[in-house]
Protein backbone atom coordinates (compact mmCIF):
# COMPACT_ATOMS: atom_id res chain seq x y z
CA UNK A 1 0.00 0.00 0.00
CA UNK A 2 2.70 2.49 0.96
CA UNK A 3 4.93 1.51 -1.94
CA UNK A 4 2.10 1.79 -4.42
CA UNK A 5 1.27 5.24 -3.12
CA UNK A 6 4.85 6.39 -3.59
CA UNK A 7 4.63 5.40 -7.26
CA UNK A 8 1.23 6.85 -8.14
CA UNK A 9 1.81 10.44 -7.04
CA UNK A 10 4.47 10.99 -9.71
CA UNK A 11 1.94 10.56 -12.50
CA UNK A 12 -0.49 13.07 -11.01
CA UNK A 13 1.95 15.95 -10.53
CA UNK A 14 0.91 17.93 -13.65
CA UNK A 15 -2.78 17.55 -12.79
CA UNK A 16 -2.22 18.49 -9.14
CA UNK A 17 -0.10 21.48 -10.18
CA UNK A 18 -2.80 22.74 -12.51
CA UNK A 19 -5.64 22.12 -10.04
CA UNK A 20 -3.91 23.77 -7.06
CA UNK A 21 -2.39 26.56 -9.17
CA UNK A 22 1.16 25.70 -8.22
CA UNK A 23 4.50 25.80 -9.97
CA UNK A 24 6.18 22.58 -11.04
CA UNK A 25 9.01 23.29 -8.59
CA UNK A 26 6.59 23.44 -5.68
CA UNK A 27 4.53 20.48 -6.86
CA UNK A 28 7.61 18.25 -6.78
CA UNK A 29 7.37 18.52 -2.99
CA UNK A 30 4.24 16.36 -3.10
CA UNK A 31 6.59 13.48 -3.92
CA UNK A 32 9.61 14.79 -2.01
CA UNK A 33 7.71 15.24 1.27
CA UNK A 34 6.63 11.60 1.21
CA UNK A 35 10.08 10.27 0.34
CA UNK A 36 11.82 12.54 2.82
CA UNK A 37 9.50 11.48 5.64
CA UNK A 38 10.13 7.82 4.84
CA UNK A 39 13.89 8.30 4.63
CA UNK A 40 14.14 10.23 7.88
CA UNK A 41 11.82 7.97 9.85
CA UNK A 42 13.03 4.47 8.93
CA UNK A 43 15.80 4.10 11.51
CA UNK A 44 13.97 5.70 14.45
CA UNK A 45 10.91 3.56 13.66
CA UNK A 46 13.05 0.43 13.61
CA UNK A 47 14.20 1.34 17.12
CA UNK A 48 10.60 1.97 18.21
CA UNK A 49 9.66 -1.44 16.81
CA UNK A 50 12.35 -3.04 18.95
CA UNK A 51 11.14 -1.15 22.04
CA UNK A 52 7.37 -1.37 21.71
CA UNK A 53 6.88 -4.31 19.37
CA UNK A 54 6.74 -4.55 15.60
CA UNK A 55 3.02 -5.22 15.49
CA UNK A 56 2.15 -2.16 17.56
CA UNK A 57 4.28 0.14 15.42
CA UNK A 58 2.90 -1.46 12.23
CA UNK A 59 -0.70 -0.93 13.35
CA UNK A 60 0.12 2.66 14.31
CA UNK A 61 1.65 3.14 10.88
CA UNK A 62 -1.52 1.94 9.17
CA UNK A 63 -3.55 4.47 11.17
CA UNK A 64 -1.12 7.31 10.40
CA UNK A 65 -1.09 6.32 6.71
CA UNK A 66 -4.91 6.34 6.59
CA UNK A 67 -5.05 9.73 8.34
CA UNK A 68 -2.44 11.11 5.95
CA UNK A 69 -4.40 9.76 2.98
CA UNK A 70 -7.61 11.35 4.26
CA UNK A 71 -5.76 14.65 4.74
CA UNK A 72 -4.47 14.42 1.14
CA UNK A 73 -8.02 13.94 -0.12
CA UNK A 74 -9.22 16.99 1.81
CA UNK A 75 -6.28 19.22 0.82
CA UNK A 76 -7.29 22.41 -0.94
CA UNK A 77 -3.87 24.06 -1.09
CA UNK A 78 -0.44 22.86 -2.09
CA UNK A 79 0.90 23.48 1.43
CA UNK A 80 -1.83 21.27 2.91
CA UNK A 81 -1.15 18.53 0.38
CA UNK A 82 2.60 18.61 1.01
CA UNK A 83 2.08 18.43 4.78
CA UNK A 84 -0.43 15.62 4.32
CA UNK A 85 2.02 13.70 2.16
CA UNK A 86 4.68 14.05 4.86
CA UNK A 87 2.23 12.58 7.38
CA UNK A 88 1.38 9.82 4.94
CA UNK A 89 5.11 9.20 4.49
CA UNK A 90 5.55 8.68 8.24
CA UNK A 91 2.82 6.06 8.13
CA UNK A 92 4.38 4.52 5.05
CA UNK A 93 7.74 4.37 6.82
CA UNK A 94 6.14 2.38 9.64
CA UNK A 95 4.77 -0.11 7.13
CA UNK A 96 8.00 -0.40 5.16
CA UNK A 97 10.16 -0.72 8.25
CA UNK A 98 8.03 -3.18 10.18
CA UNK A 99 7.05 -5.52 7.33
CA UNK A 100 10.44 -7.31 7.10
CA UNK A 101 10.69 -7.52 10.89
CA UNK A 102 7.19 -9.00 11.13
CA UNK A 103 7.98 -11.51 8.40
CA UNK A 104 11.15 -12.50 10.22
CA UNK A 105 9.23 -13.04 13.45
CA UNK A 106 6.29 -14.90 11.86
CA UNK A 107 8.01 -17.24 9.42
CA UNK A 108 10.05 -20.16 10.71
CA UNK A 109 13.77 -19.45 10.42
CA UNK A 110 14.27 -21.99 7.62
CA UNK A 111 11.76 -20.32 5.31
CA UNK A 112 12.08 -16.67 6.36
CA UNK A 113 13.81 -16.03 3.04
CA UNK A 114 10.61 -17.01 1.23
CA UNK A 115 8.65 -14.45 3.21
CA UNK A 116 11.18 -11.75 2.35
CA UNK A 117 11.06 -12.86 -1.29
CA UNK A 118 7.26 -12.50 -1.31
CA UNK A 119 7.61 -9.04 0.20
CA UNK A 120 10.18 -8.08 -2.45
CA UNK A 121 7.84 -9.36 -5.17
CA UNK A 122 4.95 -7.30 -3.81
CA UNK A 123 7.13 -4.19 -3.61
CA UNK A 124 8.37 -4.70 -7.17
CA UNK A 125 4.90 -5.32 -8.58
CA UNK A 126 3.37 -2.32 -6.78
CA UNK A 127 6.17 -0.07 -8.05
CA UNK A 128 5.62 -1.36 -11.56
CA UNK A 129 1.84 -1.17 -11.73
CA UNK A 130 1.56 2.07 -9.73
CA UNK A 131 1.84 4.41 -12.72
CA UNK A 132 -0.70 2.39 -14.71
CA UNK A 133 -3.16 2.38 -11.83
CA UNK A 134 -2.62 6.13 -11.39
CA UNK A 135 -3.28 6.77 -15.07
CA UNK A 136 -6.51 4.74 -14.91
CA UNK A 137 -7.69 6.58 -11.79
CA UNK A 138 -6.85 9.97 -13.31
CA UNK A 139 -8.68 8.99 -16.50
CA UNK A 140 -11.81 8.19 -14.49
CA UNK A 141 -11.69 10.88 -11.82
CA UNK A 142 -10.00 13.59 -9.82
CA UNK A 143 -6.41 13.32 -8.47
CA UNK A 144 -7.85 13.10 -4.95
CA UNK A 145 -9.00 9.56 -5.76
CA UNK A 146 -5.33 8.55 -5.92
CA UNK A 147 -5.18 9.11 -2.17
CA UNK A 148 -8.82 8.27 -1.44
CA UNK A 149 -8.37 4.73 -2.66
CA UNK A 150 -6.08 4.19 0.32
CA UNK A 151 -8.93 4.68 2.77
CA UNK A 152 -10.90 1.45 2.19
CA UNK A 153 -7.70 -0.49 1.50
CA UNK A 154 -6.11 0.85 4.68
CA UNK A 155 -9.17 -0.01 6.77
CA UNK A 156 -9.13 -3.51 5.29
CA UNK A 157 -5.42 -3.94 6.01
CA UNK A 158 -5.90 -2.64 9.56
CA UNK A 159 -8.80 -5.04 10.12
CA UNK A 160 -6.83 -8.03 8.87
CA UNK A 161 -3.78 -6.98 10.91
CA UNK A 162 -5.87 -6.71 14.09
CA UNK A 163 -7.42 -10.15 13.52
CA UNK A 164 -4.11 -11.86 12.64
Q: Main sheet, how many strands, which sense, barrel?
A: none
Quaternary structure state of the chains depicted: single chain
- What distance separates the N and C termini? 18 Å
Q: What form results from the Cα inertia axes?
A: globular
Q: How many E-type strands? A: 0
The proportion of strand residues reads under 5%
What's the tally of helices? 7
Key descriptive features of the protein:
164 residues; mainly alpha; 7 helices
Overview of the molecule:
With 164 residues, the chain is mainly alpha-helical. The protein has seven helices and no strands. α1 (2-19) runs antiparallel to α2, α1 (2-19) packs parallel to α5 (112-140) and α4 (78-106) runs antiparallel to α5 (112-140). The longest helix is centred in the N-terminal third of the chain and has 29 residues, at 24-52.
Produce a short descriptive summary.
The chain is mainly α and 164 residues long.
Write the layout of secondary structure elements.
Blueprint lengths: L1 H18 L4 H29 L1 H21 L3 H29 L5 H29 L3 H5 L1 H14 L1
